[in-house]
UniProtKB/TrEMBL annotation:
Keywords: Cell membrane, Cytoplasm, GTP-binding, Membrane, Nucleotide-binding, Ribosome biogenesis, RNA-binding, rRNA-binding. This is GTPase Era. The keyword Membrane applies. The keyword GTP-binding applies. Belongs to the TRAFAC class TrmE-Era-EngA-EngB-Septin-like GTPase superfamily. Era GTPase family. It is a peripheral membrane protein. GO terms for molecular function: GTP binding; GTPase activity; ribosomal small subunit binding; small ribosomal subunit rRNA binding. Residues 8-175 form the Era-type G domain. An essential GTPase that binds both GDP and GTP, with rapid nucleotide exchange. Plays a role in 16S rRNA processing and 30S ribosomal subunit biogenesis and possibly also in cell cycle regulation and energy metabolism. Residues 230-287 form the KH type-2 domain. Residues 16-23 are annotated as: G1. GO terms for biological process: ribosomal small subunit assembly. Its main location: cytoplasm.
Length: 302
């Protein structure tokens, strides 16, 4: 009789300054989209847990917001507290930096990491370096900044690079029973994913014009019986912006942009949730909400 390997399961935090590719990495590790990705800095605001089971090991990933070093608003204080909470109770930390660069922002995130928890340096976006040979001296220099458990140059867009990561991470997971079913991908509710999906389309389709203090609140998420579809979900969501000019920008000429945000979000949600979705979107102005602790909490931030 062959011994089946013992189950392993553990928490892995993904940390780094904004825009180094943490959400793209999380989605690639899980094999499906659970965290929103956008070129706009600072689009991840909640601890999103992605789950991937490979062989006898279950990897539970915690995505953190990019640590904010620039502004001191209530929203950013809440985000930074989320990061510090996330890195304190995990089995392994993936510290993501952009290959070939190490900025003061990276150094600030590195300074937050608690001693005693193994850290893997993930040098992401290797594909964007002109010559891979340039990476060697940079890697050597960066390796001296912390006692890293492992150093992995890679590209989150390369599937082989992603598959190579699991055996590296596995040895840091404690031997214990899995926390989730083998095919579960996230512990976040569909309602949460609906809000995130709308927010991603919002940022993707408004480019850099819209400040990141815009957010999305899901007002209604109801499943209804339907003779035509095996599942039918009605969602109503409000896009919250800071100024009237932002509202006009989101709505667009004759409502075109808002319509497109809705269509793209609905199409993606139908794929993610495998059901028919009716989505209604509204835009409201709530100036100064990101500076207001109570309002930050009421919009669902920790």
């Amino acid at each position: 009789m062959t011994d089946t390997p013992a189950q392993r399961c553990g928490l892995i935090a993904i940390v780094g300054k904004p825009n180094v590719g943490k959400s793209t990495l999380l989605n690639a590790l899980v094999g499906q989209k659970v965290s929103i990705t956008s070129r706009k800095a600072q689009t991840t605001r909640h601890r999103i847990t992605g789950i991937r089971t490979v062989g006898a090991s279950q990897f539970v990933f915690v995505d953190t917001p990019g640590f904010q070093t620039r502004h001191g608003t209530a929203l950013n204080r809440s985000l930074n507290k989320t990061v510090q909470g996330a890195v304190g109770d995990v089995d392994l930390v993936l510290f993501v930096v952009e290959a070939g660069k190490f900025t003061p922002g990276d150094a600030k995130v590195l300074a937050l990491l608690k001693p005693g928890i193994p850290v893997v340096l993930v040098a992401n976006k290797l594909d964007e370096l002109n010559r891979r040979a340039d990476a060697a001296p940079w890697l050597q220099e960066t390796a001296g900044k912390h006692e890293f458990a492992e150093i992995v140059p890679m590209s989150a867009k390369n599937r082989k690079d992603i598959e190579r990561l699991f055996p590296i991470f596995e040895k840091y997971l404690p031997e214990q029973p899995w926390w989730y079913g083998e095919d579960e991908l996230t512990d976040r509710s569909e309602k949460f994913l609906a809000g995130e999906t709308v927010r991603e389309k919002l940022f993707r389709l408004t480019g850099d014009e819209l400040p990141y203090t815009s957010t999305v609140v899901v007002d209604k998420f109801d499943e209804e019986p339907s003779p035509k579809h095996k599942r039918l979900v009605r969602i109503a969501a409000t896009i919250i912006v800071e100024r009237d000019s932002h509202k006009a920008m989101v709505i667009g000429d004759k409502g075109e942009r808002l319509k497109r945000i809705g269509t793209e979000a609905r199409t993606e949600l139908e794929k993610l949730m495998d059901c028919k979705v009716f989505l209604e979107l509204w835009v409201k102005v709530r100036s100064g909400w990101a500076d207001d602790e109570a309002r930050v909490r009421s919009f669902g931030y920790e």
